[in-house]
């Protein structure tokens, strides 16, 4: 069996080599030595050791730079990671190679409110299926994202508002026991930020915010290339920032939270009310198609927007406006170099983006917005699974 | 002359030794070796080199740990830094030793709106006086804080709203030329955060926010022990976060900014209106004492609060409430380990703090506030000058 558990780097230099190869692809020994500021002799022996450990391998001759031809070094083609993205309504599992390219993926619709046992059983089932399809017995590691606050060191959710039954459940250790490999758990937004950093529009950014607008709203914070989790691991919880003194009651118990006004759950609620209340013929006809007890989703609102429904367009504008106010505050506070907007509701696309940009550019300090791109994610659902694989690869490719 | 320009560390280990001695006081060679994880032989030679460079010196025998007695190492008693704190209405200069203990200090009232030439001339005059009083010909370096956004790499203010005439003025280079030593410039809030980190309540904190409520309102952000300046150097500009859709026009041109509602300038404006409008007999009598064209300040409001004036107490409560809303958002976003409230308006003390705490603890994620102290600075005016000295000492004691 080719795909077995890989070794771990034994020195800081070996760890840096692995991350460079993961993020940039094959490099020559000479380039590696130059990039990391070590001698060519040292690099030659570090690369040999990585090869012995089953983490690196040769990849043909490098382009000539004059003098003796150097050989390209690549990550071992045996290295496999798994990324598991547990969302409010879906579970997705992807198998990646060492460079976090997705080799295979499986998703199912599943309500996270069913609790940890059935959801994790399903995630394991998908994982085993994907591994079997690609002839992998044991991956190097598995990263997992869940839609709520996580005690990163403890590997478990902490009082997650939309995940009843998950509080304190040892997700990381339970999965590690079943899979027999290292597992790391983080919240879904942090994981998506890592995905954007590795494969998305944030590739060149050192300090950026990733804003997820899905069922809930959250923010991943990257400072100097590293995820910033905060003192208790709950940084980025912007869904519960107050946008108005009064307003709908939020799942957290307060009123006026951003998430209670916008995000997938609020949008579905408002769409249903508009359909039933006769304020939107487009939403009413979409609701009628679903039969008795049917419900509307963010996707239906997107469909109504595409049909030119004025009420739905106004819902998106109002929501984007409120997200914009919160982001304007965060730009003044944090002065990021880039803001990426992702998550399912973000697929409402340019009308939403235009509204967010309008407020951010008007309301933040001019110095902070002079060079600040606010862009939509281009990764779709991949941000979560690729980011989860990035999370565990960071740990596997870390210095001892 | 004993006090001349000190050398610079030549290795990363030497730099770390200097910062440890600055922050913790004399340590034995053995303790230094253990703390920095280098051999005792290496440490002995690094310390010798620091002594030759005039940066360190012996400080008597260390307490016995069994075996041969070790000698304490201290920073050279010749090292001198200068911290210059330029505020909206004052200029303060302090001379410190290598451990940032203030040896002498001078302050004058001066309006920053007079522009850079007269203000910097005054700052230089105070600096020369303090240096002469302590027999110092040339300090190791000078740190400077100004009340506005700063291009840290360029060493100049950038479009500072309350500093007309200072935009793009090369403050750092002008002072370095006059003083013949290294100079660094940053905004006053960042500098005060460094002061709190070195000598104040934030001494043990790795991730904290320092909130200054003075003429303006701003925030210093420390991430993993390092000041976070943001991509354009303007992180922490929380005075211009919107707290209400409408409200008084701010110096920045927008409406509804926190700073336009609260902070020294807003408080003085509201106090004057209340005194003239007959809403506060206490403020009216304080105003009468100042004669024709007299103005009220934050200090007068503090006096009125002490006299039990209900209108003044309400002003503080309203202001504290608005500051609390903004900080609650930042706690949800940033999950800091500590919030320190400083600046002149913060001297209104516990009524203000109580209001801020009330909102923060009620409105932020419980996980983020479980262990979150919100405290008043105990450094008073020293935070600015000590922090400015800390700023330049960080650069002088940095690895080459």
TrEMBL record, chains A, B:
InterPro entries: ArsR-like_HTH, ATPase_NBD, ROK, ROK_cs, WH-like_DNA-bd_sf, WH_DNA-bd_sf. Coiled coil: none annotated. CDD domains: HTH_ARSR. Transmembrane segments: none annotated. Pfam families: HTH_24, ROK. Belongs to the ROK (NagC/XylR) family. This is ROK family transcriptional regulator. It comes from Jiangella aurantiaca.
């Amino acid at each position: 069996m080719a795909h077995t558990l890989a070794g771990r780097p034994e020195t800081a230099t070996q760890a840096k080599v692995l991350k460079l190869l993961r993020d940039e692809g094959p490099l020559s020994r000479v380039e590696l030595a130059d990039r990391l500021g070590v001698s060519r002799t040292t690099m030659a022996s570090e690369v040999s050791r990585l090869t012995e450990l089953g983490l690196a391998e040769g990849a043909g001759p490098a382009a000539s730079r004059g003098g003796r031809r150097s050989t390209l070094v690549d990550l071992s083609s045996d290295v496999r990671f798994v990324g598991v993205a547990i969302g409010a309504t879906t579970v997705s599992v992807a198998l990646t190679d060492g460079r976090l390219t997705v080799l295979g993926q499986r998703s199912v619709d599943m309500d996270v409110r069913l609790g940890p046992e059935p959801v994790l059983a399903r995630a394991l089932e998908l994982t085993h299926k994907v591994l079997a399809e690609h002839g992998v017995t044991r991956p190097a590691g598995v990263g997992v994202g869940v839609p709520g606050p996580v005690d990163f060191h403890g590997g478990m959710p902490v009082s997650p508002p939309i995940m009843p039954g998950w509080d304190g459940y040892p997700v990381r250790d339970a999965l590690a026991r079943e899979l027999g490999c290292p597992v790391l758990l983080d919240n879904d937004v942090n994981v998506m930020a890592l995905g954007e950093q590795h494969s998305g529009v944030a590739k060149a950014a050192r300090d950026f915010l990733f804003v997820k607008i899905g069922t809930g709203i959250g923010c991943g914070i990257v400072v100097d290339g590293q995820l910033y989790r905060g003192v208790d691991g709950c940084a980025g919880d912007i869904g519960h920032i107050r946008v108005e003194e009064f307003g709908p009651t939020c799942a957290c118990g307060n009123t006026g939270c951003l998430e209670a006004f916008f995000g997938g759950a609020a949008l579905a609620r408002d769409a249903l009310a508009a359909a039933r209340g006769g304020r939107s013929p487009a939403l009413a006809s979409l609701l009628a198609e679903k039969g008795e007890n049917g419900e509307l989703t963010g996707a239906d609102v997107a469909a109504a927007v595409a049909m030119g429904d004025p009420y739905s367009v106004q819902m998106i504008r109002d929501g984007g406006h409120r997200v914009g106010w919160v982001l304007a505050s965060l730009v003044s506070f944090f002065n990021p170099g880039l803001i990426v907007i992702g998550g399912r509701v973000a697929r409402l696309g340019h009308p939403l983006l235009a509204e967010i940009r309008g407020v951010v550019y008007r309301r933040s300090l001019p110095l902070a917005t002079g060079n600040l791109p606010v862009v939509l994610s281009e990764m779709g659902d991949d941000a979560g699974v690729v980011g989860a694989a990035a999370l565990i690869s960071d740990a596997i490719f870390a210095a001892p």
